[in-house]
Design brief:
The protein has one domain. 36% of the residues lie in helices and 16% in strands. It is built from four helices and two strands, in the order αβαβαα. Helix 2 links the parallel strand 1 and strand 2. It is globular and about 35 Å long. The model has no long low-confidence stretch (mean pLDDT 77).
Length: 94
Amino acid sequence: MGIDMVIHDNSKLELKNIDSDNVDLLLTDPPYGISFIGKEWDRALPDIEIWEECLRILKPGAFAIVMSIPIADCFSRINAEQSVVQEELELCQR
């Protein structure tokens, strides 16, 4: 993967193409699950596998900025905490 690269595509497809421990900053604005202005793409929250892939590609000490609204933030946390990466999330909360 090149330096200073921006990937704008379907995360379910693209995250799998990125090597582990390779990303310094993950910036994402996932669907909120509220069907914003009636849009179909905003009906569901990201599934656990996407959050696992996000954590897999981040370097140790890297940053992840996830846009959300208050209720979606709660749902995203629930999904992420149910994943196998719960220990990493607990470390981030300390």
